[in-house]
Write a structure and sequence with these properties.
The structure is a single chain. This protein has about 100 residues and is mostly beta strands. The chain has one domain. Helix content is about 0%, strand content about 40%. Strand 1 and strand 2 form a beta hairpin. It is globular and about 40 Å long. The chain starts with a strand and ends with a strand.
Length: about 100
């Protein structure tokens, strides 16, 4: 599951996840990955967060499906400001990680 954060966490502490305070209907989205290629993996599905609350998204975190174990986190290349009701989209293939 991919969570959007408004403040980055650390290796030991999760970041500040987007909340619906003041409106919006944000919720985590399930990500799928294509087969590894050239030492990296990339998302195979588009993640669409419709009706966002007003916030600035600075990064993402990957959580297990139960929401109990954070598996990975990282910043966006450019923070994104969302107004109430905006749609935030992560296109298929644009969410990628290098494997080592």
């Amino acid at each position: 599951m991919v969570a959007l954060v408004t403040a980055m966490g650390s290796p030991t502490t999760p970041g500040t996840e987007v909340t619906n305070t003041g409106g919006g209907s944000y919720s985590r989205k399930q990500i799928q990955f294509a087969a590894p290629s050239g030492g990296s993996i990339a998302s195979s599905n588009t993640l669409t967060y419709a009706s966002m609350p007003a916030c600035q998204v600075v990064g993402v975190e990957e959580w297990d499906v139960n929401g109990t174990t954070r598996r990975w986190f990282g910043p966006l290349s450019t923070p994104k400001t969302c107004n109430l009701g905006d749609t935030f989209t992560i296109s298929a293939g644009s969410y990628s990680k290098n494997l080592s």
